[in-house]
Design brief:
The structure is a single chain. This protein is about 55% helix and about 10% strand. The chain contains 15 helices and five strands.
Length: about 325
């Protein structure tokens, strides 16, 4: 696996190295071309790159998927992000750039929107729907769900937990490792544990998910890196797709991808037992209705519809 040491050490090259031993011979030729000069992906069409590698365009597409991308366009965007080559993507000038003090509000707006949109589109294109359905079924059948995350990943975990609660799935979110390990230690085979980490290298999240797995829980990793330590301790891995080095340390695009995956899981889980989900959603909406403008009318009307008699006041009118 000869590599030019002067070539940029992109995340793409790191993914290729991690999967090198598992790549078939045909895709190894493509991998070597990309390792030698990642810039070629930006300058060549898929048929031109396949010709350079002595392979077919279909082989190039398989190579992209084998290293964790949905296709050639996703591979190209990732490399463009690393190299700051916005020109390769048809004028999307905000790819891979950080914000500066002189950026206009319009530049900030378009940059954030483009990064979030691309990350969610790439996540949607590469996510394994059969795997998500399997996780949704496990969530529906679970006795309890633990969700682990630190920083912005904890916020994404909290968002999913809030949704799951409303459809009758008992769950807790843990970002403090001692409390999380305590909860993980009492998990069992009827439980599900989900660890959120964009890099897959957050030590606390890895520890909590590993402990839950040791107790027999179904373990799920939500991460951008399917070869990360977090993915290694998980039974199931849901891969997000956010562009590296856009904003650090808390990449907003990564957070949006995590939220998108959580929303997918929520809807798929609700579908598994739709009757139960509908019943819980109706009950929760009714419970909070008095705290919304005009909500007390909704509550009283619902009581009437159920044939309930509202309690009469026993207080006498003042004389």
């Amino acid at each position: 696996m000869p590599v030019d040491d002067d070539a940029p050490a992109t995340a793409v090259r790191n993914r290729i190295r991690a999967r090198w031993d598992d790549l078939p011979a045909a895709t190894l030729r493509v991998a070597q071309v990309v390792l030698d000069d990642p810039r070629l992906v930006l300058d060549l069409r898929i048929d031109e790159l396949s010709e350079r590698a002595g392979a077919s365009p279909a082989t190039v597409t398989r190579f992209c998927r084998q290293i964790g991308y949905s296709g050639y366009v996703a591979l190209r965007m990732s490399i463009a992000t690393e190299l700051g080559r916005s020109d390769a993507l048809g004028g999307a000038a905000d790819i891979g750039r950080a914000f500066g003090p002189d950026d206009t509000a319009e530049d900030v707006r378009s940059t954030l929107l483009a990064a979030a949109t691309r990350s969610m589109q790439q996540t949607a294109g590469s996510v394994d729907l059969a795997l998500l359905r399997r996780v949704a079924e496990a969530l529906t059948a679970s006795r309890h769900v633990d969700l682990y995350g630190v920083g912005s990943s904890a916020l994404a975990a909290e968002a999913l937990a809030t949704r799951l609660y409303r459809i009758g799935v008992a769950c807790n979110v843990w970002s403090e490792v001692h409390a999380g390990l305590t909860s993980a230690a009492v998990q069992d085979e009827d439980c599900v544990a989900i660890g959120y980490s964009h890099t897959g290298r957050t030590a606390e999240t890895i520890q909590m998910l590993r402990e839950a797995g040791d107790q027999g829980a179904v373990t799920v990793a939500v991460t951008n890196d399917p070869t990360s330590p977090l993915a290694e301790v998980a039974e199931l891995v849901i891969q997000t797709a956010a562009f590296e080095q856009f904003l650090q340390p808390d990449d907003l695009a990564a957070y949006y991808s995590q939220i998108y995956v959580g929303d997918l899981l929520y809807v798929l889980t609700a579908q598994v037992d739709f009757a139960r989900s509908s019943r819980h959603l109706a009950a929760s909406a009714l419970a909070v209705s008095p705290h919304r403008a005009g909500g007390i009318t909704v509550r009283l009307a619902a009581d009437d519809a159920k044939g309930r008699q509202r309690p009469r006041s026993t207080q006498r009118n003042p004389v």
